[in-house]
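Hypothesis: this fold can be encoded by more than one sequence.
Test: take the structure tokens below, design a sequence, compare later.
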């Protein structure tokens, strides 16, 4: 409901757990989640404990906001009593969105949370400082370190030898069409190859011929670094058949399946 760019507490979630309503369980919702790297999970029927945190926050919203609005149905017929909800209703959906956004930004975020022992906005800022930035910097540093150690680092697409002047970090799946900055999607390439590829999707034959270079980069770059755990967490959250990912060959196969999904759903031009 609150998606304004000036809202501080906004982000793309890593995991989305939904109930069984038709507005959540549909192909569009699942496709959207996959496109922006959200792990989509469907809760079991009649199992509120699987999404206990959101059930608890709903209770807070009801008590602090919704039941204070004119036209509220209260929490039960007993609490409603003789109150005529229909006659008292006076807020349309646009006003509701505006008022709820105001409540979140001015009241909820700054009230002390009994479990957190601080306000939600304070916890948000604290956790935000702990999350590493999702940029190309880490991948580039790893690639440069390999080059400086005299490792034979090659462009994954052309096999051209890389150095500190021609090295770029390429999104295997184009950033302009799938905003995924996960480590597994960041590959070393020459600037010339990167410019030629642009926002195209690598073709299936090109992916297959580049497999040795891609998996070698994963192994020598990420999996022998402190980023190894994050590499696997991100891959398992973003790629299909995540429960089967245990080595780079399985990861590469999942990556190729994701390539096929992007090709089909977005009709991306292929780079050959």
């Amino acid at each position: 409901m609150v998606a304004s760019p000036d809202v501080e507490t906004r982000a793309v979630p890593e995991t989305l757990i939904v109930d069984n309503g038709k507005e959540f369980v549909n192909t569009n919702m699942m496709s959207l989640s996959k496109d922006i790297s959200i792990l989509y999970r469907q809760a079991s029927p009649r199992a509120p404990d699987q999404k206990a945190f959101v059930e608890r926050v709903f209770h807070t919203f009801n008590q602090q906001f919704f039941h204070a609005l004119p036209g509220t149905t209260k929490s039960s017929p007993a609490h409603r009593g003789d109150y005529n909800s229909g006659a008292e209703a006076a807020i349309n959906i646009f006003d509701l969105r505006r008022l709820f956004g105001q409540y979140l930004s001015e009241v909820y975020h700054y009230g002390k949370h009994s479990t957190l022992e601080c306000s939600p906005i304070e916890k948000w800022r604290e956790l935000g400082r702990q999350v590493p930035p999702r940029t190309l910097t880490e991948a580039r540093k790893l690639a440069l370190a390999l080059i400086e150690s005299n490792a034979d680092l090659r462009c994954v697409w052309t096999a051209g030898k890389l150095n500190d002047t021609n090295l770029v970090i390429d999104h295997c799946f184009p950033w302009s069409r799938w905003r995924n900055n996960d480590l597994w999607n960041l590959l070393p390439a020459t600037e010339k190859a990167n410019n030629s590829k642009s926002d195209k999707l690598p073709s299936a034959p090109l992916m297959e011929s580049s497999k040795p270079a891609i998996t070698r980069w994963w192994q020598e770059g990420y999996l022998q670094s402190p980023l190894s755990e994050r590499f696997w967490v991100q891959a398992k959250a973003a790629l299909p058949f995540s429960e089967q990912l245990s080595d780079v060959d399985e990861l590469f196969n999942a990556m190729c399946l994701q390539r096929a999904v992007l090709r089909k759903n977005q009709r991306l031009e292929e780079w050959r």
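The chain is about 45% helix and 10% strand. The chain has two domains: 15-130, 137-271.
Hypothesis status: open.
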